[in-house]
Write a structure and sequence with these properties.
This protein has 262 residues and is of the alpha/beta class. The chain folds into two domains: 185 residues, Rossmann fold; 62 residues, N-terminal domain of TfIIb. Helices cover 32% and strands 31% of the residues. It has eight helices and eleven strands. The strands form two sheets. Strands 3-2-1-4-5-11-10 form a seven-stranded mixed β-sheet, sandwiched between helices. A hairpin with a 5-residue loop joins strand 6 and strand 7. Helix 2 packs across helix 3 and helix 5 packs across helix 7. The longest helix has 20 residues. The chain is globular and about 65 Å long. It starts with a helix and ends in a 10-residue tail after the last strand. 38% of the residues are buried. Keywords: Methyltransferase, Transferase. It comes from Streptomyces virginiae (Streptomyces cinnamonensis). Pfam families: Methyltransf_25. One of its GO terms (molecular function) is methyltransferase activity.
């Protein structure tokens, strides 16, 4: 499936997936900021959000004072993130870029965020390794990776076929209905996600459908890939402990002597 096309098509309506997108921006920013501060000390920190989408994490972190740069495979999503930042009076430079080939110098950032199940769009070990190698390269010594995915260990056991519909009601009382179908591949690890949205159109609905493919990488395999790339001190943090909506992996680039520079 075309990942860029998936997110280009969603750029003008991705926020409708959330019951309250602005509240999610604030909540996710605070959760990631707490992990950043615990690992690196008080900020502000220079942060790359290398799958920024329309800015859900970037905006929240920027509002808390961090110097955030956003990149995304989807130019339309990155452009919307920039518009949302400008609307909020925030500085958020963005660029369209592939996480496997980041347009930044070595050791450019204190932290890299790769959130909201972005890494599993990479469907081969080679691509995952390339993305994590780029993450390591642009992190300063002692820098931090914050990466979130779905809880794929549980999902692989359950093999869900769908996700329950949810309804978003805007201030004018108009409702948007969003639901998902999951189509598992024969390998048992990859799946196509079919996202349906019913948008209000007067007295009727306008259906919109988008489709993308994911690799259901377990936490153990994801951490193993991170260690293979040269990242250290890998640890998973549960949503109940962080307030973030997905499990978050933290990992560090070793310092000059192989130790953290915290």
């Amino acid at each position: 499936m075309d990942t860029r096309g998936f997110y280009d098509g969603l750029a003008d309506r991705y926020d409708l997936i959330y019951a309250d997108w602005d509240a999610s921006v604030t909540r996710q920013g605070r959760a990631l900021d707490a992990l950043l501060t615990a690992a690196l000390g008080p900020g502000p920190h220079t942060v790359l959000d290398n799958a920024c989408g329309i800015g859900t994490q970037s905006l929240g972190l920027s509002a808390l004072g961090h110097e955030v740069t956003g990149t995304d495979l989807s130019p339309l999503s990155a452009a919307r993130a920039a518009r949302e930042a400008a609307h909020r009076g925030l500085a958020l430079p963005v660029a369209a870029a592939d996480m496997r080939a980041l347009p930044f110098a070595d050791a450019s950032f204190d932290a890299v965020v790769c959130a909201d199940n972005a890494l599993p769009h990479l469907l081969t070990a080679r691509d995952v390794r390339a993305a994590l190698a780029e993450t390591l390269r642009v992190l300063r010594p002692g820098g931090l990776l914050l990466l979130s995915t779905r809880p794929y260990g549980d999902l692989l056991r359950a093999r869900p076929q769908s996700e329950a519909p949810h309804v978003r009601t805007d201030p004018d009382g108009r409702r948007t209905i969003t639901f998902q179908l999951w189509h598992w591949h024969a390998d048992g690890e990859r799946y196509d996600l079919e996202l349906f949205q019913l948008l209000p159109a007067g007295d009727t609905w306008t259906p919109r459908t988008s489709r993308a493919t994911y690799w259901a990488l377990t936490q153990e395999r994801t951490a193993e890939f991170a260690r293979e790339a040269g990242l250290r001190d890998t640890a998973w943090h549960a949503p109940a402990d962080t307030g973030f909506h997905q499990p978050v992996l933290t990992a560090r680039r070793p310092g000059p002597t192989g130790q953290d520079d915290s």
